[in-house]
Specification:
The structure holds 2 protein chains of 2 kinds. Chain A folds into 2 domains: 126 residues, Sandwich (Immunoglobulin-like), CATH 2.60.40; 124 residues, Immunoglobulin-like. Chain A is 6% helix and 49% strand. Chain A is built from 2 helices and 25 strands. Chain A is globular. Chain B has a single domain, classed as TonB-dependent receptor, beta-barrel domain (Maltoporin, Chain A). The radius of gyration of chain B is 24 Å and the shape is globular. Chain B has 5 helices and 33 strands. Chain B is mainly beta. In chain B, strand 11 and strand 12 form a beta hairpin. Classes of the chains: A mainly beta, B mainly beta. Chains A and B meet through strand 20 of A and strand 19 and helix 4 of B.
Amino acid sequence: MNRLLLFLGLSTGLLFSSCGDDVQDNVVINIPDTDEECCNAEETFLAYSFLNNGYVKELTELRDTIDNKYVLKVYSAGGKLHVGYNDLFFALIKIATDGYVRDFQVNDIRPLMTMTAMGMQHSTPTETETTVYNETFPAVRHAWVSFLMSSGDNGYWELSYKAAWQQKEIEHTPTVIEVNALPAGQNWLKSFKKDNQTYYLTLVNPNTFQTGNNTIRAYVSKQSADKKVPYLTAEETFTIEITPTMPDMGDHTSPNNTPLIKQESGIYEGNLNLSMTGLWNIHLVVKDQEGNIVTGGDNDNSGYSSLYWSVTI
Amino acid sequence: MIHIFVCKLVLGAGLSVMAVPAFSQTVQQADSVDGKEVTLSEVTVTSVIGAGRKVAGKGRAASIEEHLLQLGNVEMIRRGSYAWEPVVNNMATERVSTTIDGMKIFYACTDKMDPVTSYVESGNLQRVRLDAGLDGNPQATGNIGGSIDLKLRKAGFGARPQEYNATAGYESNGHLQVYGIDGAFSSQKVYANMGTFYRQAGNYQAGGGREVPFSQFRKVNAFLNMGWQPRQNHIIEGTAIFDRATDVGYPALNMDVSDATGLITSLSYRHEKLPGFFSRWESKVYYNHITHNMDDTGRPDVVIHMDMPGKSSTAGLYSILQGTQGNHQFQLNWDAYYNTLFADMTMYVKGAKPMYMLTWPDVGTVNSGLALSDDIILGARHSLRLSAKGSWQHRRIGNDEGFRALSIYFPGMARTATDLTGRVAVSYSYHQGGWRLSAGAGYGNRTPTVTEAYGYFLNNTFDRYDYIGNPALKNESAIEVNASASLTGHAVEARVEVNSFFFRNYIIGLPDTRLSPMTIGAAGVKLYRNLPDAQIVNATATLNWQILRWLRWENTARYSYGRENTGAHLPLIAPFSYQAKCKVLWGNVEAEVGTEVVARHSGFSEKYGETLTPGYNIWHINAGWRFNLGKVRCNLHAGIDNLFNKYYSTYSDWNHIPQKGRSIYTNLTLQL
């Protein structure tokens, strides 16, 4: 058999297609065995499942093509972008076969806000180079952007990137993207200043938080000297102490939370306990390597640090 | 067991019900088997005058709790005028087993607003049996303080072919109204009795006339008992009780109850007069389900509106064999049940997502036990009773979210718990002439309750702490010793009784300052902990004098003591009390005047959040008249409680909510 047929969907779909009634209703991906550009069947299946599970949707305005043979698609949660942390997923698809290409590159991701009234431009904390999102399906690459503000009357966001595949490079020119505000009770991005340098604390996607113990992740990014250049993660190492409280429940808090500690990959990780659902403020105290408080030492009227993320679970 | 006071309340419409031949035979047989060497304290709470026993004036119009208070060793924790929590030997629900005809049933409210006695009605019951201490009824588990078994009123075979009862009662204070009708039909093969009751009250007034807001309630109850005897001595019986309370106020708490509904069902098979070693065999399967909904919508100044529903369902069975051989009377009982408890809380904040947590994380409990007892007559003057029960229990947290939430406080905790518990008790009795001396000892332990092990931020309005269960608790155990002496003369009965409980790993909530409360305004968080040891002692002295054939004077004095290892007082230990009653019984008329003097609660537990309760003295008076109207037998009662309109509260009135002020009541029972 020189062709591998991969049927996705229910077995009933398989039955219909074998009857030849309605072939286009079924998802049939034909992958030539010999096509070494593309993933094997399992990787393709996993990549397809991931990108079509309904959670992520394509940001069509960011679509581009390479050499008219490959189409590069960019995905985000729900096909939307919002203030704070956003996952971006990239997939390169061979048009002729619908196969997913591996080992492509996407880099130099540049979000840029133009503030029309003030005539200013600035970027935002960004991971500019993609990495493989999950080793089991290397066809999907990942990066993140943490937007400082939403698109609106005051300004608009554009995003550009570069992609490379087999010595062919393209540049996706800046495209206007829509960045929405987060709903009430969510605030995932905070900033602080140290020695006149502005840092940003990005809480990584807390949508998976639930009652109980959660791994909490964050990035610390540093504002670039040229504000139009994306803000990369800071080389300095901090410790971020966390105290979750419920403002609607008399600042009820939970025990056994552990500070966010920088991991090898540069991400910060800690343990966060949420004792029930509802609105939680995660109060932050940032310390440097010597244990000196950098920010958050002040207390607001709750008695906790005035620097906090908010999540609603 | 000698000290073990088998106290009975006969709740029927009188001896006529008790005298139903076939049924009374079974009752007596059952009694003789668990008849223990006892001082039988039998209180007939009947509406029939002249039954020759102690009579409570309100008869069937009284609530179950009022009946229970007639029993020695029983006090009530009161959070309102409905659903009081029985306390036996100064131990509350955690250490007391409550069963209905041997059926396990568990309350569904995390705040103990619905002790299981609130899901039955006086009219459902024949009598209430209380076994104090570790020698519980065969189906009881975890009964360190005692076990209460509510015996249902069944018409029985071969009773009067038809009988109808109607009761109406009114109490001035709070406009309490009670109405009930029931009917019974009986033949040698089949019987059925059924009835319905309605009870309603508005806010009552404390002594001095101050209205106590949120003390109203409404309750409906219906029951059906059926029996079928296809062959002589082969008996199949079924029971169903539906009970629903609505609009129940709890002045001592921050919330009320919109509805509390219980459905209690059972089906049993009984074989009487078996040949051979065992003479009686009964097996029963049962199911009960309780739903309970708290409600704060009627309260002013609610900061955050909350929904707090709870559910409890229990399915179980037991099988009991009873027999007599020579000087032995023995019984063997196997029981098993499966109970699930689920409760959650949703808090609504304007403009934000509701906050949600599980307060009982859907805990499933399987429990199975084997109980044995033997009453041995050692000679003309000596007797001995032995009893033992061993139980196996397995618990599992059914809800993931609830398990994860508790794991915050107990990282790495187990989701299941398996325990073996048991109890043994022995008692010896000697009697000569009018003297009876007895002594007994026992040992037993209990597993933590679901609240104690897995409760999650249960606010206690008494000490204003949020309570979190502790899955790492050890089982609590106790050694009990007791002794009593009584002298019965021609006109005088005197009796002194003492029992002591020495606890190991006594379970109680202790503050954990590390933790932050959830309830706004709470004083802190308490975790349930094991105290190394604790001790409770109860002493009772009674003196009854039959002054004249028609005049009787009864006196009871009680003293209790409870301390934990640091020497601090335990909470909810009764102060010294003295009760006296003068009773007149003349032909068709009865009357009673009585007083209760309760000392200042100087032994209150400051450590556990109690404050001083002053002493008080109250009086009551009542009278009853029995007469016939044609074929209809009538009993009319009237009385006054709290005669001098005293403002007072007892040590066990939650947050010192005041007791009822003067209340004039009357009730009429008609029997055809």
